[in-house]
Amino acid sequence: MFLVKPEYFNKTIIIKGLITAILLSAFIYLEYLNFNFKILNTFLGLLGLYFLITIPKNSLIYAGFFTGIFWFYWIANSFFYYEVAYLIPFVILGFGFIIAFLFYFTDFVIRTFRPLYCLVSSYFSPIIFNLVINKKFLRICAIFALSFIEPFNFNWFKLELLFIDSYLQTSKIAFILILLAVFLLTEKLKYKFLAIIPLLFAFDYNPNLKIKEPNLKIYMSKINIKQDQKWLKQNQHLIVNKNINEIDKAIDLNYDLVILPETTLPLLLNKDEFLMQYLKEKSQKIDIVIGAMSSDEKGFYNSSFFFSKEKVVIANKVVLVPFGEEIPLSSFLTDLINKWFYNGAQDYIKAVTPTDFNINGYKFRSAICYEATTNKIFENINDTKYMIAISNNAWFTPSIEPILQKLLMKYYAKKYNVIIYHVANGSENYIIKP
Predict the structure, then answer these.
(1) What is the signed CA dihedral for 255, 257, 259, 260, rounded to 10 degrees?
(2) Which Pfam families does the UniProt entry name for this protein (predicted)?
(3) Considering 133, 147, 310, 405, which has the largest number of Cβ atoms within 10 A of its Cβ?
(4) What total number of domains does the chain contain?
């Protein structure tokens, strides 16, 4: 194994990897501290990529390891609620090793296929040949390819996100241009100022693309229920009343729509006839979007319920959380993991296509937590400029998870030109504009 080689434990190698990871993670923690300056984010993002391209291959492992921990340590928090807290350190280290492997793999691919690249490119011009034999150029190609890899369908590791609050764009085209600019800066060129040319094409010339907000008064409820209290049967009545109080408050303040968080009602709502009828009656006075579980003969769903004028539309989750709501492995391994770690629970059932709510003539795409940060939920959204995203972040707080989620939603809001109304249990609510 490469980790046992003495050269991998060189102090300088480790420090270079750690500095790179800090630069690649700084934008998250600066946002967490509410210290957000575009010029700083732009500089730190470019510097982080510069280090990533120029550090020795041995440092890549440490850069990936620390980056994985800095970005995803919070995932381990949820294991406390599954009563397997002893796994928390292994989960944190596991994410470090996964990103370390991805970073190291980029160099492995370069070394393995470089002779083939050289052979093929030798038939072309000397310029192409010189590029292909350039290790740093091959590394930026590998880093760009890395932006398409989603291990186990988990897509929250996006290096383009470095520039979400910067003067540069976050599209794939912009990312390769940024990498090219950084590569030119690393080369011993007489005219390094040429690096500015790709950056000019990657510059965000429309930072505040306007979408007209709907002519609706929207009440984004603030509910904070701890995860270890949420599903206790003795708390169910109290929690239901908290949600009803939020609806009543929105009615008293003459709002048109009230949004409540993911699974804010700790029950199978479609099976509770009394509560369903009660919410239908409330919807004569105000439109309601509320999160709860639902079920049918196929199994259980994570759902968003839309009540309006005594009618109800149920939007079931389309994209499930890997290893949280579904196990993205073979059926044998899925059953085994569910038995060992989730007390024999079964994966949730997912919907085939996203659902839109028609609210006073405006179309809103329904999204539940993780799926609001995936391309799948934005399918066929061309004529829909608004999204209601509900989350339960009590699994992970206090941590940077709500901030990373917010930054990812900004990424998709820009990509698809939509306004996202995000209401969460356990963290701040946001209206996220492109």
Answers:
(1) 70
(2) ApoNAT_membrane, CN_hydrolase
(3) 405
(4) 2
